[in-house]
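Minutes, structural biology subgroup

Action item carried over from last meeting: produce the C-alpha cell record for Bifunctional aldehyde dehydrogenase/enoyl-CoA hydratase (Deinococcus knuensis). EB confirmed the sequence was re-checked against the source entry. Recorded below for completeness.
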Amino acid sequence: MTLTHADPLRPASYVSGHWHANPDGQTLVDAVYGRPVAVISSEGVDFAGALAYGRASGAALRRMTFHERARVLRALGAYLLERKEAYYALSTLTGATRRDSWVDIEGGIGTLFSYASAARRELPDERFWPDGRLERLGREGTFVGRHLLVPREGVAVQINAFNFPVWGMLEKFAPAFIGGMPSLVKPAPQTAYLTERVVRDIVASGLIPEGSLQLVTGEPGSLLDHVEEQDVVAFTGSAATAAKLRVHPAIVGRSVPFNAEADSLNASVLGLSVKPEDPEFALFVREVAREMTGKAGQKCTAIRRAMVPSHLVEAVTEGLRRELAKVTLGDPARDDVRMGALVSVEQRERVRETLEKLQQEARVVISGEATLLGGDREKGAFLDPTVLLCETPLTARGPHELEAFGPVATLLPYDSLEDAIHLTKLGRGSLAGSIVSRDRAEATELVLGMASSHGRLLVLNRDNAKENTGHGSPLPQLNHGGPGRAGGGSELGGLSAVRHHMNRVAVQADPTTLTSITREFVPGADVQEDVVHPFRKSFDEIQVGDSLLTHRRTVTEADIVNFAGLTGDHFYAHVDEIGAKEGIFGKRVAHGYFLISAAAGQFVSPAPGPVLANYGLENLRFIEPVGIGDTIRTRLTCKRKIRKDLRPGETRPTGVVEWRSEITNQDGVLVATYDILTLVERARDGFDPQPETEAAPA
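Output recorded by EB:
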C-alpha cells in the first residue's frame, strides 16, 4: 500500500449503526518517512447516544448462548485471517516490522479462536453460567443455593493503547463478546486507522449482531461522563492516565467496574548460579535484546530493568553489545530490517527526555547511531537501542520510577537473591517478570519472593528455550495484568476475563425449581422415570431429570475375591480377614472400583443404540463401605447435556450427556456418587457443517 500527501486515510467512527466521518481533524504522519497518513476526528459523535444504542442493542447478544457466541467468534477469526495482508500493509506505517505486526495482527485474531475454543470447552450452551458448587442450605435438602453469572446489561467501554492497534482491541472484545456484552472501542489516535480497518471488516462480515461493536476514533470527548452502573470500563495505557480515569466522577459515583492494565517497569533476573558458558547466559542476553527491540521497545511488558549478578555485569554488557549490533534499523517494510520506528516523533522525544533523566543515576554503556536501511532520520521516529548501567540500584530512584517507552533497558547489579527480589519490588508492581536459571532452588526462591508484586512470572532455561513464548508475550490462557503501578487489574487469563463482563447472583430455591432455572439436575429434585431406558434415547430425546432406578445386587465374598484376582488389587481391607478387622472398617469390604463396575452392569443397556461410548467419569466419591452381604442399587439421572460440534471429517453428530450416578445400600444410605459422561448420537442441526463427502452449497 502506497500513500501520498494527496490521499491520507480518513478513519471514521462507527456508532449507533452508522459510520461517522469528518473531513477535518488531526493529521497523523507515518512513523517511517513522516508523510501524512490519516486525518482523524471524533467531532460530532454523540457519545451518550452511542452508549444508549449499545445497551439497547445488547439484548440480541444476550439472547445468544455461550456456544452460539463462540461459533460466531470462530467464524469471525477465519474471516479476518483471510484479510490479514491489508492489515500488514497498514501496520508498516506505524513503524512495525512484519514480525512485530504478526504479534499484533495474527496474535489478536488468534485470541478470537482461543476464546471461542475455551467457551465451547468449558461453558454451558446457555445464556448463564452456573458458578461454583451447589450449597445445601437446609438439613433436609429442600432449600439449596447456587451462584449464576449473567451478562451485565451495559456496554464494555474499551480504551486502548497505540502500540497494539489490532491485538489490543481483539483481546478485550473477545471475552466481552463471549460474556454477552457489546463493546465500544476507543483506540489511541496514533494508530486508530489500523483499528478502524479491522472494525470495518468485522461490520462488513455481518457475523456479529448489530450493536455488538462500536468504534470511536479521535479523542474520547465526554464519553466517560455517560457511563452507567451496568457498564464496565477497561483501560490500557500509562499508569498516570489510569490513575486519572479511575477517579472519574461517573466511574466513582456510579460504581462502574474499572479495569486497568498499565505500563510497568518489568524486570528480568539472571540467576546467581548462571555462568557465562551456560546456555542460560546466552538466553538471558537474547531475551533482553529481543524485548528491547521488539515493537521498538513499545510494549507494556518489555524488559526495562535487567538484574544481573555483579560479577557478570561486564560479560552481560559485552553480550548485549554483540547481540544489538545485529539489529538493523529502518523501513519495516524491508525484509532486511529487524527494528522499525517508534510510533511518532513525539513519542521518540518523550523517550529521549526520559533517557536524559535516567542518566542522572545511570550511565550509557551501549548506544550509537546505526545506518538506516530506508526511512527518514529527521522526519521518521527512529531511535537506536540504548543500554544503561546503574551501579547503585538499591539507592537509586530513576530506574525504578521512570519508564522510557522505547528501545531502552537498564542493567542493575545485585549480590544476593534477597537483593534481586528487593530490586524487582522497587518498581511498585509489574505486569511481567522473568527469571533465567536452571537451578530449581534458586528459581523457587525468586518466584515466591517476586510473586506478590507481579501479574505473570516466567522461568526460562535451556529446557524450555525452544518452546517458551518469551518474557513479553501475554497469552489468552494466562493472566495479563499486575498489581500497583501495573494498574491493579487483570485481562485475559482464560475465562476469568469473561467474568469481568458478568454479574454474579446467588439464587436460593428448592431443588426442583433450581433444576428448572439452571437446566442442570440438582440432587433432591423431582425426576422423570420412563418405560424407555434412558440409554435407548437419542441426545435430542433425553431430558435433564430423566432417571433410572436399577435392580438390586447383593455383594458376595466371591465378587470381592474374583475382582481382586482380575485386577491384581489384593489390598488387605478386601482380602485379609484378620487385617481388615484391625483396619478402620472392622471387616472386609468391597473394592470401590468393583462398586462402579457393578453399577455399570446395573444401568447399562447392552444392545446397540444411540449411546456410542463412555466419555469419562468425574467427581467420584466413596462415602460408606460396602461389605459382604450388603445389597446395592443405583440411580442414574441426566444431569446436563452438552452439544458437540462436528469436527472436520466427522459425519455423525453427537453430544455429551452427563449422568449423576448414586449407589445406595439396602438401608438407602449413599455409598458412592459420581458423574458419568456418555457420547450420544444426536440429530443434525443448522450449526453443523456439511460432511466433506457432500457438495457445499453454491
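Discussion: The first strand starts at residue 13 and ends at 15.
Next step: EB to file the record with the rest of the batch.
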